[in-house]
Amino acid sequence: MSTNKPNSNMRIDYSLIFILLLLGIVSCFAIYTVQFQPSVPSTYDASGLVIKQIMWYIAGSMLVVLIMLMDYDRFRQISWILYGFGIVTLLMIFFNFPAPIIHEANNARSWFIIPGTSTTIQPAEFMKIFLTVILAHIIVSHNEKFKTRTNQTDLWLLAKLLGLSFPPMGLIAVQPDLGGFLVLAAIVACMILVSGIRWRILFAITATVTIIAGVIVFFYINYPDATRDVLYNVGFKHVESRFLGWLYPETYGDSGYQLTRAIMAIGSGQLTGKGYADIQVYIPERHTDMIFSVIAEQYGFFGASFVVTLFFLLIYRLIHIGLQSNDPFGSFMIAGFIGMFTFQTFQNIGMSIQLLPITGLPLPFISYGGSSTLTYLIAIGIVLNIHYRTKEYMFD
Question: What are the CA-CA distances from residue 268 to residues 33, 142, 351 (Å)?
Answer without folding.
Answer: 16, 53, 17
